TrEMBL record:
CDD domains from the UniProt entry: RING-Ubox_PUB
Pfam family membership, one: U-box
Keywords assigned by UniProt, alphabetized: Transferase
Protein name according to UniProt: RING-type E3 ubiquitin transferase
Any one Gene Ontology BP term: protein ubiquitination
Reaction(s) this enzyme catalyzes, per UniProt: S-ubiquitinyl-[E2 ubiquitin-conjugating enzyme]-L-cysteine + [acceptor protein]-L-lysine = [E2 ubiquitin-conjugating enzyme]-L-cysteine + N(6)-ubiquitinyl-[acceptor protein]-L-lysine
U-box domain ranges (all copies): 22-101
Nucleus listed as a keyword: no
Length: 724
């Protein structure tokens, strides 16, 4: 068997023995017993390899003896070395003839489909031949050996594959043309396959070969273009693998390509992209990297890292950059500001003054509306951070975000822009009025601006998000200006009717209904005129019906995500679809039989992390190997539990929750229909990549399987089984 050839088998010794059988005795150095490459003659007339006799003379001197001839043992008066040109020429000619014979034999062994022993001999000889000098590497390429060797990467013998990887690395070392020849056709993809195996000699050799190839700028782009290659390398760099330093060198080399840098950022390795953003290099490149940063979906801890690294630079671009540069910076800031911690970092970096200025500036210097919308989104993120906006100045006059002038400008902008910006600026006011510390300042500004009627008019907005935001805002300010709101509603029966309609509609979001009901409750209860209008519109009857329990109420089927998966009709016979037997709560704690799935799902959104961990752990039992996983996923889907599990994965609140969420999601993604839908959700992919890079070993393996379900990683297993 080929595997029996592993061990201390020394190919160089074998070649020496073969040469001895054919070489003249005069070609052999008496000291090294090897064929000489640089023969020299000493005073005694004997010939030796230059390096060997030089070492002999040095040892004589070091031992305090006079130099003697190794063969005659006679004392020498001179240690001069005279090159034997004729002998060297003869040896070189003999070597060339011998090597031609051996290369021909190697070619035959590699192409004839012979025994593994012959293939291994051929590969070993080529390694020996290439290590002699650089010209031999060119000869190997010119003689067409590289395609023969790359073909052996698919050999059924692991020993042959390993030797082929080593041989290709030796051929590619310090030879750009050979690198490109090795990287031709589909070879790089084949090499990448070895990286997906468990730690092994093949994987180590593949990493070494890939490192050599990555030194070629041309091949850097080709390596990056192989599906899943960069994600695999980024994952290896994040692990504690034995070849992590070499993998890091590969990734550093791959940074020569902007496309590779973008892929690295997409897969959680952001530093190269951030470095390009910070470098004073090509403005076009910085613009490209900034734009791409704005397109990424980042985990919260990554957002914080980005804000700390390039937040100040992005803010500076906002202040003085071109429109194109500002657009890239705003999109990136919109992405990274959506986390409370990173938003506070950006506030400290001075983002508020230029942001508010861009929002309020009108005329020829104003931002395009599409960018004002992005700026408004950033402002929503910033005010959600809980910072103390009373003490953060916006200009030299110490205006703040809650100053009358600023709030007046916000209200003016709300009344004079399109729906997208209207909605976001209403959300800004909702966040500010949600703080007991800030609400009175906003109320004062609203009263002084005379904007009460304008805000009430949004109750009738066609866009649901605008209507919802306006209701929340009015709800927040109603305890402080109930009389003003009552006057406005009493004078406009249409708006009051719209408010009542919000509460009555069955398809209205509960949070919106609650805000509308709370707003009505905060209005002055002694206002008889308003009370009469509410009675006429049936407000009290509708409110009462909303708190009356309806035993016949049935929850509608879950809309949107996974709906089709959940439309399978339930089984009505006595056989449990999950356990394929008759279950009981008392005997086998069956969650389906105990109707506990929905109750456990409801706990997944609880703030108590221990409760969430326990609930998710219990739900994982319906996805175990011992049950019908498809039925378990169906049960979870019918209880509207898929999205909460995905959200737990995305939030990554604790290590245990991440482990359980990754495990559950991998099981869920075995259902093709769900996997296809989840593949389009970048937040889920980002969370799985994060687990694949930084979780414990077992969770990383499970995350890798999950990424393969969503086709973010190639599945090489079938191919590797065939060649293994």
């Amino acid at each position: 068997m080929a595997e029996d050839l592993e061990g201390d088998f020394n190919y160089d010794d074998q070649y020496s023995e073969r040469f001895h059988e054919k070489a003249f005795d005069a070609f052999i150095c008496p000291l090294t017993k090897q064929i000489m490459q640089d023969p020299v003659i000493i005073e005694s007339g004997c010939t030796f390899e230059r390096e060997a006799i030089t070492k002999w003379f040095r040892e004589c001197v070091d031992s305090g003896k006079k130099p003697i001839c190794p063969l005659t043992q006679k004392e020498l008066h001179s240690t001069d070395l005279n090159p034997s040109i004729a002998l060297q020429n003869a040896i070189e000619e003999w070597t060339r003839r011998n090597e031609a014979v051996e290369l021909n034999r190697a070619s035959t062994s590699l192409t004839s489909g012979g025994l593994d022993r012959e293939i291994l001999w051929a590969l070993g000889y080529i390694v020996h031949f290439c290590r002699k000098n650089d010209a031999n590497k060119n000869a190997v390429r010119d003689l067409g050996f590289i395609p023969m060797i790359t073909e052996k990467l698919k050999n059924s013998s692991r020993t042959v594959r390993s030797k082929a990887l080593e041989t290709l690395r030796v051929i590619a070392e310090d030879n750009d043309e050979n690198k490109e020849a090795v990287g031709a056709e589909d070879t790089i993809r084949t090499i990448i396959k070895f990286l997906s195996q468990e730690p092994s000699q093949d994987r180590e050799l593949a990493v070494s070969l890939l490192y050599e190839l990555s030194k070629s700028e041309i091949l850097c782009e080709k390596i990056g273009s192989v599906y899943g290659a960069i994600l695999i390398l980024v994952g290896m760099a994040s692990s504690k693998s034995e070849n992590i330093s070499t993998v890091e060198k590969i990734l550093n080399n791959l940074e020569k390509s902007e496309e590779n840098i973008k892929q690295m950022a997409e897969n959680g390795r952001l530093q190269p992209l951030l470095t390009l953003l910070l470098e004073a290099g090509s403005p076009e490149r910085q613009l490209s990297m900034g734009s791409y940063l704005g397109e990424l979906v980042l985990a919260n801890d990554v957002k914080l890292f980005v804000a700390q690294t390039v937040g100040s630079s992005l803010v500076n671009v906002m202040k003085s950059g071109s429109i194109q540069a500002k657009e890239a910076a705003l999109k990136a800031l919109n992405q990274i500001s959506s986390n409370e911690a990173s938003a506070k970092v950006l506030i400290e970096a001075g983002i508020l003054p230029p942001l508010v200025k861009d929002l309020f500036t009108a005329g020829i210097k104003q931002l395009p509306m599409r960018l004002k919308e992005v700026a408004a989104s950033i402002l929503v993120n910033l005010v959600s951070s809980g910072a103390d906006f009373v003490v953060i100045p916006l200009d030299d006059n110490n205006q703040t975000l809650v100053s009358d002038e600023t709030v007046h400008n916000l209200l003016h902008l709300i009344r004079n822009t399109g729906p997208a910006i209207e909605c976001k600026l209403l959300q800004v006011l909702v966040e500010l009025t949600g703080s007991p510390h800030l609400v009175t300042d906003i109320v004062t500004a609203v009263k002084s601006s005379g904007a009460t009627i304008s805000l009430i008019q949004f109750i009738e907005a066609y866009q649901k998000d605008i209507r919802a935001a306006s209701l929340k805002l009015l709800r927040n300010i109603s305890p402080y200006m109930g009389n003003e709101l009552a006057d406005a509603l009493r004078g406009s029966p249409g708006h009051l009717g719209s408010l009542v309609k919000v509460i009555s509609e069955s398809d209205t979001i509960f949070e919106e209904q609650a805000a509308a009901a709370a707003l009505l409750a905060d209005l002055p209860n002694r206002d008889t005129g308003l009370t009469r209008q509410l009675l006429e519109k049936g407000a009290f009857r509708i409110a009462a019906s909303k708190v009356t329990f309806n035993p016949n109420y049935q929850a509608p089927p879950p809309p949107g995500l996974f709906k089709r998966c959940c439309m399978k009709p339930p089984l009505l016979d006595e056989i449990c679809p999950l356990h394929k037997g008759i279950c009981s709560v008392r005997e086998n704690f069956c969650l389906l039989e105990g109707k506990a799935v929905e109750k456990l799902v409801s706990c997944l959104e609880h703030r108590n992390e221990k409760l969430v961990e326990a609930s998710l752990g219990a739900l994982c039992t319906i996805l175990n190997d011992g049950v019908d996983i498809a039925e378990g996923v169906l049960a979870l889907c019918q209880a509207e539990g898929i999205r909460p599990v995905l959200d737990i994965l995305i939030e990554n609140r604790t290590e245990l929750l991440q482990q359980r969420a990754v495990w559950a999601v991998e099981r869920i993604l075995r259902i093709d229909e769900i996997a296809k839908e989840v593949a389009g959700d970048p937040t889920v992919a980002s969370a799985l990549v994060e687990a694949f890079r930084n979780a414990d070993f077992v969770t990383r393996q499970i995350a890798e399987r999950a990424l393969k379900h969503t086709e973010k990683l190639p599945n090489f297993s079938d191919t590797l089984q065939k060649i293994g």
